[in-house]
Design goal:
The protein is mainly β. The protein has a single domain, classed as 3-methyladenine DNA Glycosylase, Chain A. The chain is about 15% helix and about 40% strand. It is built from three helices and eight strands. A seven-stranded mixed β-barrel has the order 1-2-5-4-3-7-8.
Amino acid sequence: MTNEMRPEINFLQDAFQVSDALNGVQIEVNGKRAEITATQPYTRDENEPSPYDVILHRRPGELVIVPFLQHGLPAIVTIEGGCALIRGVNILEQETVVKEITRPGVVSRELGLLRGGVYTLEIVTQQPPLIRAKLSE
């Protein structure tokens, strides 16, 4: 990850803006830390007729583990019923990459995220970007 100035993380934006801002951000959950390497935006129209419709009932800035397949899919809620799906991460130990993950269900499993769980996100620092997730339900 580079030390260049990046846009601030702001969950009160649309799915495309949040998805772009999340790449390169570190997320800490359950004592594990990972760098987000791939995301995919989903709009309200894409979320309504699918398993992602649980997103429509959540607040921007929550991490929802969409109950789909075995481990669930990690998605950060944005405004207007959108979300940014976390598709890939690098698992970090003391700032060193120890594992690269490129599938959302495996991201959930490796970070210990509970299928169907909702996590509150706290922006710890903007530069370098770090968010912390805590199970809220």
